[in-house]
Write a structure and sequence with these properties.
The chain folds into 2 domains: 172 residues, no CATH class; 152 residues. 49% of the residues lie in helices and 15% in strands. The protein has 13 helices and 11 strands. The strands form 4 sheets. It has a 5-stranded mixed sheet with strand order 7-6-5-10-11, with helices on both faces. The protein has a two-stranded antiparallel ribbon with strand order 1-2. It is elongated.
């Protein structure tokens, strides 16, 4: 989303006073689809990402940072390159010759970097930064409200992981230390499967397979609300006490209601004789009331996820063992 900015009839100037240089902020009048420009830009968070030779400015939807499970899941948006474009986008990359003075406690923000920040920043808009000292210096020098916390660090980890895709202009490589610390969300997922993975053991293959596992787990999450609502409807209409059923049993029960003659012995075994009898007997009550195709898709997806998780877990265990052996071999040389 790079390109020329709209011109404006009014501008405001913010100055990095200790350097004696000024950076001009351009504010655009009008609206986007009926939304005031300042309101629109407040919904978009800027992300200032430091690369080996400069800084990149990204935009991303601010609500991604405040989701209930952001810390556990935000890393997966950077796990594979095909999904990241919907999550974050590059606005500009700029090489900085003297990186040590770009953001400095004594001298503030360099003219070049200040100009880039103010070029993209709009009044009231927040900017995520990768270090707590950057937050303090930029807020003091440019009056730009900044964000730095553990969720922002997940975003920075992700940007490092896909820097070669997201910032193709950057030709220099990150060092091993630059990838530290390890993503907390990734660590939580690996730990959930009993895998103790040190940061230096993380490989692209491990990240991609971990993303796949998270996607499998998400099948239940995305189908839960609709299934639970339908369970309440079934309990009211047929008196079947299904609110305490686990999600897979509930999905199977709804499948039996939709297709009462197409049930397997394994599916029948999930229910008591009374529950099964009521599901089959009352199936006609739900004709035209339940979208069969939608529920069958959810059921099939959940069944497939449960079949894939053990296989993916085994592959992940093998990858972790390979990575551990490789690290130990490298340390012994």
């Amino acid at each position: 989303m790079t390109g020329k900015r709209s011109t404006s009839t009014s501008t405001s100037t913010s100055t990095s006073s200790k350097r004696g240089c000024s950076a001009t902020r351009t504010a655009t009048a009008g609206s986007i689809a009926g939304v005031d420009h300042n309101t629109y830009h407040c919904l978009i968070v800027l992300v200032l990402f430091e690369t080996p030779s400069g800084f990149a400015m990204f935009g991303m939807s601010g609500d991604r940072l405040i989701q209930p499970n952001a810390l556990q899941e935000i890393w997966a948006n950077f796990g594979v390159d095909y999904r990241v474009s919907k999550f974050i986008w590059l606005k500009e990359f700029r090489e900085i010759k003297d990186k040590s003075s770009a953001i400095n406690h004594d001298t503030g923000v360099s003219c070049d970097l200040a100009e880039m920040i103010m070029k993209w920043h709009h009044p009231g808009q927040k900017m995520a930064v990768g270090k707590p000292e950057y937050k303090e210096i930029i807020e003091r020098s440019l009056s730009v409200p900044c964000m730095f916390d553990e969720i922002v660090m997940e975003v920075m980890w992700g940007l490092k992981n896909l820097m070669h895709v997201l910032v193709p202009q950057e030709k220099m490589k990150l060092s091993k230390d630059d990838y530290l610390p390890m993503s907390q969300g990734l660590y939580m997922l690996l730990n959930r499967y009993g895998l103790d993975v040190k940061p230096e053991m993380v490989t692209d293959s491990i990240i991609k397979l971990a993303c796949f596992l998270l996607d499998c787990e998400y099948c239940d999450v995305k189908n839960s609300k609709h299934l639970r609502w339908t369970g309440e409807y079934i309990e009211k209409r047929s008196g079947i006490k299904c609110l305490d059923w686990d999600l897979m049993k509930l999905a199977t029960g709804i499948k039996i209601i939709c297709y009462p003659t197409e049930r397997s012995t394994a599916e029948e075994a999930m229910f008591t004789q009374d529950e099964l009898s009521k599901l089959v007997k009352d199936a006609h009550k739900y004709e035209g009331k339940i979208r069969k195709r939608s529920f069958m898709n959810a059921y099939s997806e959940m069944v497939e996820a449960r079949q894939l998780i053990p296989m993916a877990q085994k592959q992940l265990e093998d990858l972790v063992k390979e990575a551990k052996d490789a690290c130990e071999a490298e340390q012994s040389t």
